[in-house]
Amino acid sequence: xxxxxxxxxxxxxxxxxxxxxxxxxxxxxxxxxxxxxxxxxxxxxxxxxxxxxxxxxxxxxxxxxxxxxxxxxxxxxxxxxxxxxxxxxxxxxxxxxxxxxxxxxxxxxxxxxxxxxxxxxxxxxxxxxxxxxxxxxxxxxxxxxxxxxxxxxxxxxxxxxxxxxxxxxxxxxxxxxxxxxxxxxxxxxxxxxxxxxxxxxxxxxxxxxxxxx
Length: 213
Prior knowledge:
Blueprint: H1 3-34, H2 43-64, H3 68-90, H4 95-108, H5 117-142, H6 149-162, H7 166-186, H8 199-212
Helix pairs in contact: 1-2, 1-3, 2-3, 3-4, 3-8, 4-6, 5-6, 6-8, 7-8
């Protein structure tokens, strides 16, 4: 593909991402109201999904070009951006999002290059059980909920999307979460007793893994 059409593809896909981001925000507002939650009106809450989806669509178009895999990866961008901003805003990962996405992930694993149904199943089951064990261990050690079941379900979804690359995504997510938590502590914006939502970091790690694999 010549440079000009390729540039048009990246720009056009980014514009499509911006429009899709508007729908992500609109859908998140509707979902929040279904859960009895009040949607926030801060700039990052309103404009964040739009800007993030636009930038990620353009980046994935640049990375993969006009291939069928671009459609699949862009779908997961939409799901993961919704998870990132909804969990950051409401501290909640919705079954209404994760469960349908997991079913679709199983179907698309059949046509996703480098994945396949069996690796997806192994990745989903392994990641889900590993995070469930961590959640139960944390609850036993600290006598409180250390990790929500939403994070467990999200981990299982990431396993379905990524197969063996789930380890990479989780590793990136853990590093990001640790760096942000440490920064907040050093700036005295959080204390040791405060928690941060873990879902956005897992989702960000998954986006990184989807981009490079």
